[in-house]
Amino acid sequence: MFFTFSFYCLKRVLLFFSTFSSLFFTGLTIHAFKFSTSYSSPLSSYFFRLGFIFLIASPLGYAQSNEPQTLERYTVTAVRPYYDETLSNIFPQYEFDKRSLVTPLHTNDVLLQSPSISLNGQGGQIQSISLRGYARWRIQTLLDGVPIVSDRRAGSSIGFIPPSFVSSVSVLPGAASTYFGSGALGGAVNLHMDAPQHSYVQGGYSSNQQMKTVSYAGNVENTDWSIAHRNANNGSDGKDNSLFDQFEQTAFYLRHSPSSGIVKEAWTLYSDNNDIGKSSSDYPENRITTYPDNRHWLGKLAFATGDFSGNVWWHQSRLETSVLRPSSRINNSKNNAFDYGFDVKSDMAWQRWLVNFQLQVSGREGVVADEREFSLTALPLAFNGAPSIAELAYEVRTLDASEINVAAIFDASRQYTKTSVAVGSRVDWQRQSDDAGVISSVTAKNISAYAGANYRLSAYWNASLYFSSAFRNPTLTERFFAGETPRGTVLGNTSLDTEQALNTQATLAYRSEQLQGSVELFYQQVDNYIERLTVSEDILQYVNLDTATIKGASYQLNWQSKDAGFDARLSGAWIAGEDNLGNTVADIPPHNQRVDIGLNWSDMRFFTVLAYRASKTDVANGERALDSVFTVDFGAHWQVSERVQLQASWTNLTNQQYFTSADDRAAFAQGDSLQLAITYSL
Fold first, then answer.
1. Which pLDDT value is given to residue 7?
2. Residues of the chain with pLDDT under 50
3. 224-249 burial by CB neighbour count: b if 16+ within 10 A, else e?
4. Number of neighbouring beta carbons within 10 Å of residue 109
5. Structure confidence by residue, pLDDT tens digits, 111-144
6. Whole-number Cα distances in Å, 528 to 206, 320, 498, 540
7. For 329, left (φ over 0), alpha (ψ -120 to 50), or beta?
């Protein structure tokens, strides 16, 4: 009770500071928008955008006419993921940071810098992603190595993590079960938490949702922390139609790294999210889906002694969902789960091979979903002060299950004169139990492996070939769930077979002092592909399909000038997927191309992002065709003084109207939006 009361007080204090900090931006932003929207002609809108660019660029003259100030510089050393050392020997590894972002509206904005990642499903704060055409439960999301598992069919979302907490992300596309197990059939995304080198306070504002943010981060000796509060109203699309994407979020992160002893690092994160709107084309006529409460408490302890090291982690989550069908009924559900894990690893040298061993134990307890349905017997909504009358129709527990997983992992790598090779394998055992006692437990045994080689063609060129296998056991929801969802009544299937995948990837990479890049060709086949199909009117069930294949190409090219004054990145991907009958499989994103350009001048950095998403006409069941779209973002960072930094950006500068994904219930993306932020170092 003390913890809950303290966090409530902290949340109220942060809300006060959030409201106070927004006053600075209101005079500049809101009034500017009123001026822009009151004259709706394209010419006035065009001049207003030019005015914005001039506004954020105008300090440049000041910077040129004064002596540059002496700034304190910090060197940040990134902690590499445990799998990176081996895999980096056979193909390039990429991380993406926030240099070209200003107070992102969503942590997904950091991920979308990778050409392999696209938005998936319906929008809002808990929007999920697609990785090389794999989505939902087929990709693994991690926070500093801690798996984020969700019982939603849409898959896990990182929306509960404030963007200010994240420093960078690592993306590992392709079958990666050897390191991450069942959830990484299509790859994994690992978020790295920021480690502030000094204390600072930051306030931010986004015009489209009238979102206000305030965060405080600090560092004392071996301890650092971050606190953030964000709240947003409903935004609007490119044609000023309302989007149901409101939310309120308060989060706290604490990390300690002892200078001696067995414990090397310990951290915890608590995130409280309320009144989250689901941005959907169903809103508001057909369905209004709200997530009243979404809480996460997770943490990790890293230890090392002698030749052994390891981690202990946990994640407690709670999600409430309310679905209103006007003139019909209300369905409320509550999902709770406690996930935990332990791993220990060691390494050794054997005949010029570097060999790693690891034992993993993980599990899920108390995975429970409760549902209540209310029938609307009077007015479906409140009209002229007359309230709706909702009567309880039924109350049922739709899921009560648990699972335990044990795995042994081995990998080895070696470098020859011009060739590097790496191999790895995983032996995995899992037991899933229906704790309601209706169905007995189900066990599964799986083996996955990979092998890869890299050959140095010259001082700058490398070519590599990578083969990997992966598996995905059906989730607890796919096996045991039986209840109502926004899509209709869904039934689990205890007879589902494990998905099996084979992945092939060929890479050509170039690296010099100023230019780095790679081109990747990939082909992946999945057997026993699990999909949710309609078996009768408004009733869906999970079934195995025969085979599905996903193939494509992606590229990344990074360049920076010798004086670090100019940098550019060009990236893109082409992805296609179909089943054994030639039908398009779900979640395949449209082709995309992106250009990031940055200019560093004195104490300022300007950046722009040009993104093109091609049209999509080959769609699967539950999807819609998409038109092509071209968007432009522009922004700047200005180090005003040793303590003060200003940031500004304009996203979707040309106010394009487009769907966020091919999901047939996805809403339009947000229209143009101005982001402002000020950071003060303490």
1. 44
2. 1-78, 380-385
3. bbbbbbbbbebbbbbeeeebbbbbbb
4. 18
5. 999 999 999 989 899 999 999 999 999 999 999 9
6. 44, 32, 7, 18
7. beta
By the 8 A CB rule, do 132 and 589 touch?
A: no
- Please give the structure tokens belonging to residue 516: 């780095």
Distance, CA of 485 to CA of 287 (rounded, Å)? 11
Alpha-carbon distance of 227 to 218, in angstroms, equals: 9
What is the pLDDT at residue 36?
40
The kind and range of the H/E element at 297 are: strand 288-305
CA distance 590 to 264: 43
Ordered DSSP codes for 611-624: EEE--B----TTB-
Instruction: Give the model's pLDDT for residue 433.
Output: 94
Backbone dihedral angles phi then psi of residue 337, each to the nearest 5 degrees: -160, 150
Which residue shows structure tokens 């209103």?
324
CATH topology of domain 2-681: Maltoporin; Chain A (2.40.170)
Strand ranges inside 94-236, DSSP E? 94-96, 117-120, 123-124, 128-131, 134-135, 140-143, 146-148, 166-173, 187-193, 200-206, 211-220, 223-232
Residues 340, 313 contacting (CB under 8 angstroms): yes
Residue 651 to residue 643: CA distance in whole angstroms = 26
The three-class DSSP label of residue 163 is helix
Its pTM stands at 0.85
- The helix-helix angle for 42-57 and 2-38 (nearest 10°) equals 120
**351-370: pLDDT as tens digits:** 899 999 999 999 999 999 99
Query: What are the structure tokens assigned to 429, written together?
Result: 């055992």
Query: 600: which 2 tokens?
Result: 């560093």
Q: Are 280 and 302 contacting, i.e. CB atoms less than 8 angstroms apart?
A: no
Type of residue found at 233: N
Q: What is the spatial distance between Cα 480 and Cα 182, in angstroms, rounded to a whole number?
A: 17
Q: CA 519, CA 508: separation in Å to the nearest integer?
A: 5
Which residues have CB under 8 Å from 664's CB, separation 6+? 281, 622, 623, 624
Question: Phi and psi for 264 in degrees, rounded to 5?
Answer: -95, -30
Residue type, position 633, single letter: D
Read off the tokens for 656. 């394009």
Strand extents, DSSP E, 416-474: 419-434, 442-456, 461-472
Q: Confirm if 167 and 642 have CB atoms less than 8 A apart.
A: no
